[in-house]
Amino acid sequence: MPQNHENTDWSHSVTAVVQKDGCVLLARHTYGGGKGKYIVPGGYLEHGETPEEAVKREYFEETGIVIEPRRVIALRCNAHDWYLAFSADYVSGEPTSDGDENDDVAWMNTDEALSRDDVPDTTKKLILCARNAASGFERLPYNGNPKNGWGVLYGVEIE
After folding, report:
1. Superfamily of domain 5-155
2. Mean pLDDT, rounded, of the chain
3. Which helix (H) or strand (E) holds 18?
4. Which H or E element spans position 53?
């Protein structure tokens, strides 16, 4: 499904590392600096969409895989945007290329992915974060300010 560019929030993007049976789900990108590289799928939020909703939508659109995001494992930010990375559980589906943003989607052995030249450094770092993190930031109860739209708070679990 093509992204509605009028509804796209170009300053907020998400991804997730999904692992199953010693493998990680990667997609071979078809454009830009990542062309020909296997990366973790993801993309931009739509206005009004939470990060969790966006990463579930992006994964399904790009790979045919249903996921459930669990923990925030990494955050990249600068003066213009942020990129939030989750670890996520595989729920269902068979990997299928979207025929647009990627031309191959595959479960790749995690150790193989970490050693391949066609897997970018950022993807490798995210895989390591997901594989090695005993925990990450969990979504915590948070009411936020309704005039600002949605709001989420991530942090360590509060007992």
Report:
1. Nucleoside Triphosphate Pyrophosphohydrolase (3.90.79.10)
2. 88
3. strand 8-20
4. helix 51-63
